[in-house]
């Protein structure tokens, strides 16, 4: 059909000729397959070979304006020939951050597991939706089995759960479920008539707790921050005091969000002590173990989560320490009453018909607040099948070994100052360059130290592309580095390089 927009010449444009016979596919099938084949070659070369080679850069830094020109971002009416399009693909790979590189220490995700990646390729190619057995029979069963395996590690013989698009969403699910269990009428009546609800979490918990409170209408003012000790762990005595205070002020406490592996320090809240309080005051106990949950695979380190079996819900991100690939996040529930479905179901008859020829309990879509849901379970299942629980345990233990090595070496080198002994694999430290040593009493010392991190060391690191490591301030502390080394591709040589590079970058500042 002709469009109704005037042409630049003022005359009506001609109707475009049909590009294909209507009995043929719109896009040439063979041409598409060839493009995909060539794209895979680029992925293998630029991302999985160069992107994991220590001799290559972690990033090829470009300023935004320059990068926009290099990528030729503009979208046009006419398509580009395949040769040009493949160059776009190569440029995307070239100028993206290589998060699989052994010297990418910037986030709580890194590295690559090739079995998991194979699962990601497979699910993308199959392009299905995980809401009914009829459309995703394999993946409904796979998700159920992976959740059972995770439940066993938590210490539950049964339960419920669902894969979510990230740990933040898992935390929000927990809040919604806890509120619904206490006030089921909220599903139909909304917030009308509900009392003022209160959530408790540590001062160093993830920001998604406040985001969830805002989204669910609880309000960020009603997220009560509990004091932490020097290691960043929630103090149960302060939690109890704040619960009592909230009740005395007419609030209804309903949830405590604990953290197993805080984002910055990697602290683990004392779950057993908190569980005692949750049972005493009848509160839902949620454990945000998005970062630290993988210690459950390790016989040496699972004690960090002692008491997790007493929780009502657990958020866990295998895309972090286990390197399952983004995104792979699960919400685990101890509940066996179908609370997840009762809270979120809308019973859409066009999708969740009750007269199907198979067991309709296999249709999991009504448990989710989403309709479309990606298949995130296969990557973890395939990786778990490939290396077994023993292989995943070794991966966790290796990360602890690297963290301990870094700490030991920092103590031997001048200029490195730890925030404290790490409980997990987060190593937080300042590096004091030679130019600032002995000047701690200067009035502008803290300001200068912060600037060195932000404007000099980090900038040089990124622009030279040698490695990436995150930094942040916290409370009254100025910018400090946080390094996490858990990729299965890294070695002790990479730890030594990290320390040497920090010293090199800070040498002449």
TrEMBL record:
Coiled coil: none annotated. Keywords: Decarboxylase, Lyase, Pyridoxal phosphate. The modification N6-(pyridoxal phosphate)lysine is found at residue 320. Its cofactor is pyridoxal 5'-phosphate. It holds the Pfam family Pyridoxal_deC. GO terms for molecular function: pyridoxal phosphate binding; sulfinoalanine decarboxylase activity. The keyword Lyase applies. One of its GO terms (biological process) is carboxylic acid metabolic process. One of its GO terms (cellular component) is cytoplasm. Belongs to the group II decarboxylase family. Homodimer. PANTHER family: CYSTEINE SULFINIC ACID DECARBOXYLASE (PTHR45677:SF8), GLUTAMATE DECARBOXYLASE-RELATED (PTHR45677). This is Cysteine sulfinic acid decarboxylase-like. The lineage of its organism: Eukaryota, Metazoa, Chordata, Craniata, Vertebrata. The gene is csad.
């Amino acid at each position: 059909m002709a469009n109704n927009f005037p042409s630049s010449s003022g005359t009506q444009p001609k109707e475009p000729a049909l590009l294909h016979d209507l009995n043929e596919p719109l896009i040439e099938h063979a041409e598409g397959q060839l493009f995909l084949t060539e794209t895979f070659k680029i992925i293998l070369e630029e991302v999985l070979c160069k992107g994991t080679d220590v001799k290559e850069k972690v990033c090829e830094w470009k300023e935004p304006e320059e990068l926009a020109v290099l990528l030729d971002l503009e979208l046009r009416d006419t398509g580009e020939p395949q040769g040009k399009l493949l160059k776009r693909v190569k440029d995307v790979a070239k100028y993206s951050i290589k998060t699989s590189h052994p010297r990418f220490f910037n986030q709580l995700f890194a590295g690559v597991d090739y079995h998991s990646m194979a699962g990601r390729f497979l699910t993308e190619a199959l392009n299905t939706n995980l809401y009914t057995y009829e459309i995703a029979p394999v993946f409904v069963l796979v998700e159920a089995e992976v959740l059972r395996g995770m439940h066993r590690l938590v210490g539950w013989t049964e339960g419920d759960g669902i894969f979510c698009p990230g740990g933040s969403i898992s935390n929000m699910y927990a809040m919604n479920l806890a509120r619904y269990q206490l006030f089921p009428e909220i599903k139909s009546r909304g917030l009308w008539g509900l009392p003022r609800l209160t959530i408790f979490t540590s001062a160093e918990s993830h920001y998604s707790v406040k985001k969830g409170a805002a989204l669910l209408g609880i309000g960020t003012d009603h997220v009560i921050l509990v004091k932490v000790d020097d290691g960043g762990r929630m103090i149960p005595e302060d939690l109890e005091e704040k619960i009592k205070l909230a009740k005395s002020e007419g609030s209804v406490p309903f949830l405590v969000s604990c953290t197993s592996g805080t984002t910055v320090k990697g602290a683990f809240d004392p779950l057993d002590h908190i569980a005692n309080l949750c049972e005493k005051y009848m509160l839902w106990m949620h454990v945000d173990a998005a970062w630290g949950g993988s210690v459950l695979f390790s016989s040496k380190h699972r004690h960090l989560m002692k008491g997790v079996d007493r929780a009502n819900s657990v958020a866990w991100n295998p895309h972090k320490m286990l390197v399952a690939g983004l995104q792979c996040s699960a919400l685990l529930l101890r509940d066996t009453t179908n609370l997840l479905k009762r809270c979120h179901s809308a019973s859409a008859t066009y999708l969740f018909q009750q007269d199907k020829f198979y067991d309709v309990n296999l249709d999991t879509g009504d448990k989710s607040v989403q309709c479309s849901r990606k298949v995130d379970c296969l990557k973890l299942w395939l990786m778990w099948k490939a290396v077994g629980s023993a292989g995943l345990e070794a991966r966790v233990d290796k990360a602890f070994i690297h963290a301990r090595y870094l700490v030991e070496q920092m103590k031997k080198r001048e200029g490195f100052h730890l925030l404290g002994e790490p409980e997990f694999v987060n190593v937080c430290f300042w590096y004091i360059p030679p130019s600032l040593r002995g000047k701690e009493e200067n009035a502008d010392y803290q300001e200068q130290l912060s600037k060195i991190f932000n404007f000099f060391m980090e900038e040089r690191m990124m622009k030279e592309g040698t490695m990436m490591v995150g930094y942040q301030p916290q409370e009254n502390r100025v910018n400090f580095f946080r390094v996490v080394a858990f990729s299965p591709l890294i070695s002790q040589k990479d730890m030594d390089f990290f320390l040497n590079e920090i010293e090199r970058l800070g040498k002449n500042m």
